[in-house]
Amino acid sequence: MAWRDSRRNRTKLMLFIASIVVGIAALVAINSFGDNLQKDINLESKTLLAADLLVEGHQKATDSLELVFDTLHALERASSLNFLTFVTFPKHNDFRLALVKAVEGNYPFMENLKLLLS
Predict the structure, then answer these.
(1) pLDDT at 57 over 60
(2) Which of residues 5 and 116 earns the better pLDDT score?
(3) Rounded CA gap, 53 and 6, in Å?
(4) In whole angstroms, what is the distance from residue 34 CA to residue 13 CA?
(5) What integer pLDDT is reported at residue 52 of this predicted model?
(6) Running DSSP on this structure, what letter comes out for residue 92?
(7) End-to-end CA distance of the chain
(8) What is the spatial distance between Cα 84 and Cα 70, in angstroms, rounded to a whole number?
C-alpha cells in the first residue's frame, strides 16, 4: 500500500530512505571510532601515563593514605602539583592561560607493578 501511495513521490521516498541509511551509517561509524579509541587508550595507558599507577585528587592526601603509600616503600614515587595561571607578554601586551606543573621525584619512570588489593 505504501508503494502504491508513493507513485507520485518516489524520488522523495528514495531520498528519505537514503537519509535514514546515511544517518545510521554515521552513527555506527562514530560509535566504532569511539570504541577503537577507548581500546587504544587502554592498551597504551602505561606508556601515556609513564607510570604504573596514578592516584589523583583535588586535596592533599590524608595521613592514612600517605601511610598506605609509605608501606609500598619498594616503589619509586613522584608527586606533582598542578595549577592554572596567566602568563603575560609585556612586549605584545598579551596574555595566555597556562598550566603550571611542578613534579617532585624521579618522573617519568616505568616499573613493573604487581600489587594485589583485597
Answers:
(1) yes
(2) 5
(3) 62
(4) 32
(5) 67
(6) T
(7) 65
(8) 29
d(CA 56, CA 54): 6
| 115 Rama class: left (phi>0) / alpha (psi -120 to 50) / beta | beta
Q: Is the dihedral of CA 10, 11, 16, 20 positive or negative?
A: positive
- The confidence score (pLDDT) of residue 54 equals 73
Write b or e for each residue in 88-117: b if 16 or more Cβ atoms lie within 10 A of its Cβ, otherwise e: eeeeeeeeeeeeeeeeeeeeeeeeeeeeee
Cell of 48: 601515556
**Set of cell numbers at residue 98:** 597556562
For 3-51, write each residue's pLDDT tens digit.
777 777 888 888 888 999 999 999 999 999 999 999 888 788 767 666 6
C-alpha cell at 50: 609513564
Domain extent listing, the chain: 1-43, 51-118
Q: CB of 75 within 8 A of CB of 106?
A: no
Instruction: Please say whether the dihedral angle defined by the alpha carbons of residues 69, 55, 83 and 96, taken in this order, is positive or negative.
Output: positive
Copy the grid coordinates of residue 64: 592514612
